[in-house]
Specification:
homodimer; 155 residues; alpha+beta; Arc Repressor Mutant, subunit A; Gyrase A, domain 2; 2 domains; four-stranded antiparallel beta sheet; 6 strands; 43% helix; DNA-binding
Chain lengths: 155, 155
DNA sequence: ACCGAATGTGAATATTAATTCAATTTTTTG
DNA sequence: CAAAAAATTGAATTAATATTCACATTCGGT
């Protein structure tokens, strides 16, 4: 459903920019943005999105996005410009970047989608990534595309 | 109290090696190891330790340690051997390492204690870290010592 | 367009987790 | 060492969150 997608985006936006400590509060913030749903649905949404409830530095509980959903525009632009090719072979993915950019892109991959690509090694302009057992190449591609805009639509 | 310290260690050990999905289960595992406590106390322990409850890849809920409490023996040995000096100045900490090791140690610091050292820059053998406002040098030292064995006892 | 399967949802409920309150122990300080 | 302050804890409670069940909607494949 279309609404669910938008709602996920809204949840992501809200908890990455606000301090939310319980689902009731989040429900309220969603309502302000025009999303009407119950706590039951929200609980399910958060589970699907793998949002964690964690004690904060401040001592209170807050909801946190998993690394895979974290995002930052500037970074995306940077990453987008550094990637040149992507290929799959068996449970490996091979990425090529502009010279010198491999390790920083590898770093981002390690940070963002550790449950999809379980490890990487980076040279100067090449990254070899090992794909988690059982995942399809498409799933990996999509996970990468989630934070590398130039990949969107491609493949 | 002595028991609490040991209990924290036990909790850390249990949830880093087991899949625990609720406090009752964890209580049970603690009981097996000789720790007798109630759910109320456990809830407080987890809050203090900043243990997050997060949806797992598998779809179930699991408790996860914050990065600052994660650990790995091999890594520790590696880190221990790479660090040579540590000094403080105002809200900065300066670490020296064997040549070439600065960025990997800086990476670990960024990963493990982001709420203590809010940022680092690393050269070839030097790391400059910026300490979070309000923290004492001792607190920072202890946070570093928590994953760099050679620091334990020192200072 | 129709059917069956899969997905999405709310109301109610069950489960899980956090906190209050009171009592106790430990630590600090004069 | 005594008194005060701080920390620790359990029982009971409240609060928060997950799930069950029933129904509705959407999707995929004829």
């Amino acid at each position: 459903m279309k609404n669910k997608i938008k709602r996920f985006a809204a949840i992501k936006e809200i908890i990455s920019t606000n301090t939310v400590s319980c689902q009731e509060d989040l429900l309220q913030l969603l309502a302000e943005r025009g999303f009407q749903l119950t706590q039951a649905t929200l609980s399910r949404d958060l589970k699907q999105m793998k949002v964690a409830k964690t004690p904060d530095v401040s001592g209170e509980y807050i909801y946190k996005l998993p690394n895979e959903l974290k995002n930052s525009e500037e970074h995306n632009i940077y990453l987008a410009s550094s990637l040149t090719t992507i290929d799959f072979s068996g449970n490996n993915v091979v990425l090529h970047t502009r010279s010198g950019y491999a390790s920083s892109l590898a770093y981002e991959i390690d940070e963002r989608i550790p449950s999809v690509i379980i490890g990487t090694v980076a040279g100067e302009d090449t990254i070899i990534g090992v794909i988690k057992e059982g995942l399809s190449q498409k799933e990996v591609f999509d996970a990468l595309a989630s934070f590398i805009p130039t990949l969107k639509g491609r493949q």
